[in-house]
């Protein structure tokens, strides 16, 4: 992934626009794209800064607000499979995919592996 443009360059691009130059002129002068000039000006108007936004970051699960509901369902029926748990959530108007549900349970440290009765194998 490419590095963001420096703050110095961003400030010079913004100053070019504020001085009355057209987007294309500023883009050519500083060897950036016209879309960068446009987006930078929009960012400056909306956020008041020309600093680049942070890359990436952790996104919270769409199920995070429903953690209590998931735990409640599993406490009531500990043997639910992922498919059954997903159906119970859908009945409560909580729509999610099986893979999202599996990742959410893994993040909570809840396993769905069923254990056989009897002595464990070596």
Poorly predicted ranges: none
Shape annotation: elongated
Work out the number of β strands: 0
Order of helices and strands: HHHHHH
The mean pLDDT is 89
State the major sheet: none
Radius of gyration: 26 Å
Category from helices, strands and their pairing: mainly alpha
β-strand percent reads: under 5%
Oligomer: single chain
How far apart are the first and last residues' alpha carbons, in Å?
Answer: 46 Å
The total tally of domains equals: 2
Work out the helicity level. Answer: 40-55%
- Our count of helices gives 6
Task: Give an overview in words.
With 122 residues, this protein is an all-alpha fold. The chain folds into 2 domains: 7-47; 64-108, no CATH class. It has 6 helices and no strands. The chain has helices spanning 7-18, 23-30, 34-47, 67-76, 82-91, 98-108. Helix 1 (7-18) crosses helix 3. It is elongated and about 80 Å long. It starts with 6 loop residues before the first helix and ends in a 14-residue tail after the last helix. The model has no long low-confidence stretch (mean pLDDT 89).
